[in-house]
Amino acid sequence: xxxxxxxxxxxxxxxxxxxxxxxxxxxxxxxxxxxxxxxxxxxxxxxxxxxxxxxxxxxxxxxxxxxxxxxxxxxxxxxxxxxxxxxxxxxxxxxxxxxxxxxxxxxxxxxxxxxxxxxxxxxxxxxxxxxxxxxxxxxxxxxxxxxxxxxxxxxxxxxxxxxxxxxxxxxxxxxxxxxxxxxxxxxxxxxxxxxxxxxxxxxxxxxxxxxxxxxxxxxxxxxxxxxxxxxxxxxxxxxxxxxxxxxxxxxxxxxxxxxxxxxxxxxxxxxxxxxxxxxxxxxxxxxxxxxxxx
Length: 294
Hints:
By secondary structure, the protein is an alpha+beta fold. Helix content is 45%, strand content 20%. The protein contains 13 helices and 10 strands. It has helices spanning 3-8, 97-107, 131-138, 142-145, 152-168, 173-183, 190-197, 204-210, 215-226, 230-248, 253-260, 265-276, 280-288, and strands spanning 15-19, 22-28, 35-40, 43-50, 53-57, 60-64, 68-72, 75-80, 89-95, 124-128. The strands form 2 sheets. Strands 1-2-9-4-7-10 form a 6-stranded antiparallel sheet. The chain has a 4-stranded antiparallel sheet with strand order 3-8-5-6. A hairpin with a 2-residue loop joins strand 5 and strand 6.
């Protein structure tokens, strides 16, 4: 599910404001399912006001609570309700590249590009919140109930103050390095997008969205790099991951199907039988017995 479009198209559930075509949302999460798959084609800053949620990407997880802020880069992830269930009230700020560049350039003299860290390839990046940052994001909240209380220019000033306080904090250089990369018009390589997200059940158009490319450009760059089509590559990568999990984990077939991005168990079983002439269950049993499978 495209979380940005879900938020944007449901203002009755996700209270929202728009500032220069940037979407800001403040809401109590209505999630009912234990875990859901989401993706976003825009970077977002997320601040937890109360409760918590778990975000998972690949084999890593992050617990979102009031102690930390989070930057979610373009990509897919799983959002999970923790076992000690509690409501989750959250402020989400979607930031498009052009606007980030504009704000960064305005404050560039205040940012040092010296000794910035190597970019962390993780899609989810936590950052430090101090009292100034906390006060900055909390100052935005009253305007969700009274959106015309202040002119846009004043509200924008409050948002810029928040972003400035995040980027100027000495513990948040990883965030500064990432935004500095965006400002430099860095185009994320196709391989980086695919290796980080192939195990999610996404359409080719959704991978293109995350990569910030048109479908035709995405396909052209993909085939140039991988020398095959996206569909064939995705099937092979997902099958490779499923094969490994069947041999090295005790996960159920259903869980492996979910973890590898197959649409459903019957879909994975069909792919498996085409490759090995065995169902996933039979494949696992023969491997346990030490039977070689050609």
